[in-house]
């Protein structure tokens, strides 16, 4: 799950296309006839048929499309296509079934997951399992719409869509927040209006139903499932709906049991504040280097004075970064491995300089989500997944009040993360998903100090749906597949043995 704080002006650029596009529309040749009828799959080598297939030198992964209902409450109505991938078990005589891999999102492609995982520590599972991946509805090679954050069309400009007017740097924090909220609302309304019926059906619950359609098309009575980050929400929803169709499920870096955007922000703020409380004495011990003070009290005063000064008089630097109070808050709750760079940047700005983090430097392009993929972030799918089923974020005054309450509770870092404004202007009320306990084998793993999907979410989901919880002793998001403890995952899918207690992580 991608959760970094993103200001409206830095939203990723996406091509503004109102039409739905599937595998053929993205350049996959010879696959348009891959489905004889609804519920069937015909496989072809992905690298030979899919435009810009993201896995270099991949000759093993096969691709197909599956036709599913747009709205499962109206199965005879409009249909959409879901892109599916497969790597067949290398030892058919030992084959145990299929293992679906859902590595994250929302908003990003997952179809290369079988090839990515087959090349890592979990690759041995490809000996006796068919590895299955898929692009959820709304992203990648599956049917989707595209919608830029900034609409370049003359009609949009003439019609005043989007705010188009930034508040001055001297505007009050509330005025700035209200302008950002309005800009998000304009984007949400404009993009949802491109195809309301489609956007309304972009839900985790429907993705879980699509997964069951994939199971049926594969001819399997049950599936194994390995989910990471947002993929854990897909898995938990699938198990809640189709418990008797799960052979075994492992979810790592777990999403909360329900989407409450305000509560999610509060959990992240609490974690960041705990990191700040450890950062302060470290700065005091390193006063000869960074000069924030020799005691905890002196460090706090210096940092909060700097934040207050930049809140009153923000500074804009060459790459578009605005050095304001929020910029300071963003550096106060960082992980210990980032303390040196954070302290250096804060000290540089205190003396009137430009922080290294704000200076342009050549570097590889970054994408969102768990795995790199060349198709980028589909922002409207991302918004829809949280807003169609997530509560919060519709009313500015409530969002503002909740943010101020978090700032009072967490004085150093409160209010920096603002998931709660993602659903500004969303045209439909939330229909929250309903996690329930099941009896199929379920293993959860949470990372004790990570901030992308905080450990508290794993414990909350564990309480809501059952299973067994393993605690990974690190602050890394979704690191389990790269750890020696990946052996526990392999053992779980082969023997059903669950794991409790702790597991050494990455530090």
Helix content: 25-40%
| Number of H- or I-type helical stretches | 16
* Morphology call: globular
Please give the alpha-carbon distance between the first and last residues. Answer: 21 Å
Rg over C-alpha atoms, rounded to the nearest angstrom: 23 Å
Please trace the helix and strand order, writing H or E for each element. Answer: EHEEEHEHHHHEHEHHHEEHHHHEHEHE
Which strand order spans the largest sheet, edge to edge or round the barrel?
A: 1-2-3-5-4-6-7-10-11-12
Family: Belongs to the peptidase S33 family.
Region (Disordered): 152-178
GO molecular function: hydrolase activity
Protein name: Alpha/beta fold hydrolase
Secondary structure blueprint with pairings:
Elements: E1 44-45, H1 46-49, E2 62-69, E3 79-87, E4 97-102, H2 113-118, E5 129-135, H3 154-158, H4 173-192, H5 196-200, H6 204-218, E6 223-229, H7 230-241, E7 246-254, H8 261-285, H9 287-290, H10 296-312, E8 315-316, E9 322-323, H11 325-332, H12 339-350, H13 379-389, H14 396-409, E10 442-447, H15 455-465, E11 468-473, H16 486-495, E12 502-504
């Amino acid at each position: 799950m991608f959760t970094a704080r993103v200001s409206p002006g830095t939203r990723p650029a996406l091509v503004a296309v109102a039409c739905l596009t599937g595998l053929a529309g993205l350049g996959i040749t010879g696959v348009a006839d891959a489905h004889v009828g609804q519920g069937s799959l015909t496989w072809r080598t992905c690298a030979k048929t899919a435009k810009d297939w993201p896995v270099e030198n991949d000759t093993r992964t096969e691709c197909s499309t599956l036709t599913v209902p747009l709205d499962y409450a109206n199965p005879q109505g409009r249909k959409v296509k879901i892109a599916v991938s497969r790597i067949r078990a290398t030892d058919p005589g030992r084959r145990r079934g299929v293992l679906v891999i859902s590595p994250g999102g929302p908003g990003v492609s997952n179809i290369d997951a079988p090839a990515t995982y087959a090349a890592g520590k979990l690759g041995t599972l490809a000996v006796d399992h068919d590895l299955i991946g898929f692009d959820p509805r709304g992203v990648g090679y599956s049917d989707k719409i595209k919608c830029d954050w900034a609409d370049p069309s003359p009609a949009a400009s003439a019609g005043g869509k989007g705010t188009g007017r930034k508040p001055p740097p001297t505007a009050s924090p509330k005025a700035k927040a209200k302008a950002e909220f309005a800009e998000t609302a304009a984007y949400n309304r404009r993009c949802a209006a491109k195809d309301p019926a489609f956007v309304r059906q972009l839900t985790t619950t429907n993705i879980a139903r699509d997964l069951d359609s994939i199971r049926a098309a594969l001819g399997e009575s049950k599936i194994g499932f390995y989910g990471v980050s947002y993929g854990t929400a897909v898995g938990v929803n699938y198990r809640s709906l189709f418990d008797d169709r799960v052979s075994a499920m492992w979810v790592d870096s777990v999403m909360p049991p329900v989407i409450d955007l305000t509560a999610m922000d509060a959990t992240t703020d609490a974690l960041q504040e705990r990191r700040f409380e450890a950062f302060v004495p470290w700065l005091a011990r390193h006063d000869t280097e960074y000069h924030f003070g020799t005691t905890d009290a002196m460090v706090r005063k210096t940092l909060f004075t700097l934040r207050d000064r930049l809140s009153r008089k923000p500074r804009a630097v060459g790459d578009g970064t605005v050095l304001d109070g929020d910029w300071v808050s963003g550096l106060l709750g960082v992980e210990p491995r980032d303390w040196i760079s954070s302290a250096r940047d804060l000290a540089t700005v205190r003396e009137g300089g430009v922080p290294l983090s704000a200076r342009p430097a050549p570097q590889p392009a970054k994408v969102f989500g768990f795995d790199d993929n060349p198709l980028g972030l589909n922002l409207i799918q991302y918004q829809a997944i949280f807003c169609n089923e997530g509560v919060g974020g519709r009313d500015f005054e409530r969002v503002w009040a909740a943010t101020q309450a978090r700032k009072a509770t967490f004085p150093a870092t409160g209010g920096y993360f603002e998931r709660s404004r993602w659903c500004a202007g969303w045209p439909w009320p939330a229909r929250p998903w309903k996690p329930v306990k099941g009896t199929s084998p379920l293993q959860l793993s949470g990372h004790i100090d990570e901030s992308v999907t905080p450990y508290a979410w794993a414990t909350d989901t564990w309480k809501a749906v059952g299973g067994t919880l393993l605690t990974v002793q690190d602050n890394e998001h979704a690191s389990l597949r790269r750890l020696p403890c990946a052996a526990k995952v392999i053992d779980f899918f082969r023997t059903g043995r669950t794991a409790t207690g702790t597991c050494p992580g990455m530090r």
